[in-house]
Amino acid sequence: DVQLVESGGGSVQPGGALTLSCTASGYSPSTHCAAWFRQAPGKKREGVAAIDLNGGRTYADSVKGRFTASVDNAKNTLYLRMNNLKAEDTAMYYCAAGTVVFTYWGRGTQVTVS
After folding, report:
1. CA angle 100, 101, 107 (to 5 degrees)
2. More confident residue, 73 or 22
3. Residue 34's Cα: distance from chain center in Å?
């Protein structure tokens, strides 16, 4: 079975930093695109960062310059480094992976900035 398990969320003050991890099992991250999404209460889910098969990265405008997505294929782990966190970054963060569409999803990890 394919599993994605996020970790690293928590509570932090504005201006602080967190690194989220997403450990994958049951498939190889090197053959799938990956992304981080987030959803705040009462808001739609939004894409935060994505990594394509060539290693290219795209970011939402709201996090550019503050968030960095990376992948360690040897560890089957995705990361999202978040710096200079703001209150509006408060949300449940999810990692996702897939080929044509994001088929696999984790259960999320909560990030609270206050």
Report:
1. 145
2. 22
3. 8
